[in-house]
Backbone:
């Protein structure tokens, strides 16, 4: 399998498949493909896993695309301005990502819901349910805005504003901490809690979140009469 990530503000990935190779994505995730690609739609893991994916920002049903001849291609595009990040999973190396990050993956990768601790889920800015990628193969994720990779040493902490956490290796601990100072809470603009990530491991931070983008666009939306 070959792939090419292209585009700048609104990137896409074009994946080349040989006969018998396949990838899967959420329903409606395909942009275009060659004519010898076969689509099959199923719940991928059963009803329980499907409902978990819905809480994680994806569709109940997943679509698998399989090449029925050599030299086939399929293109999938990101839904917001940002970057497409490819993670290569293997046994013992998992990735956790923000809600809605999943773009597509090879069949050996399993997408599961990841439930955070209560405090981190309520106040950390990402919600209770995130996405957990396990197995072996490639997973393609769409991250928002510009992306910075940071490597944390064992015990090293990074404090992050709400929504700027895109993904992290499963060896990293996700939590939250309260903003100190009464005036900081009221007037600091950062909310009541900030997310903390503790190493060891790599984290990927994004300069934009979809929720913050939506908030900035609301004042410019026409009011309904």
Residues:
């Amino acid at each position: 399998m070959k792939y090419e990530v292209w585009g700048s503000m609104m990137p896409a990935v074009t994946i080349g498949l040989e006969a018998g190779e396949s990838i899967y994505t959420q329903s409606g995730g395909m942009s275009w493909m060659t004519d010898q690609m076969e689509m099959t739609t199923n719940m991928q893991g059963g009803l329980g896993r499907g409902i978990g994916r819905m809480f994680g920002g994806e569709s109940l049903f997943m679509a698998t695309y399989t090449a029925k001849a050599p030299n086939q291609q399929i293109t999938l595009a990101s839904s917001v301005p940002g970057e497409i990040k490819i993670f290569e999973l293997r046994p013992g190396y998992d990735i956790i990502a923000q809600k809605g990050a999943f773009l597509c993956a090879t069949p050996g990768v399993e997408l599961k819901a990841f439930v955070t601790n209560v405090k981190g889920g309520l106040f950390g800015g990402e919600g209770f349910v995130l996405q957990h990628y396990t197995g072996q193969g490639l997973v393609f994720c769409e991250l928002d805005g510009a992306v910075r990779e940071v490597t944390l040493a064992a015990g090293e902490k990074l404090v992050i504003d709400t929504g700027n956490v895109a993904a992290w290796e499963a060896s990293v601990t996700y939590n939250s901490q309260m903003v100190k100072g009464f005036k900081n809470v009221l007037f600091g603009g950062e909310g009541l809690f900030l997310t903390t990530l503790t190493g060891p491991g790599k984290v990927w931070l994004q300069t934009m979140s979809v929720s913050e983008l939506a908030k900035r666009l609301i004042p410019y939306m026409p009011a309904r009469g």
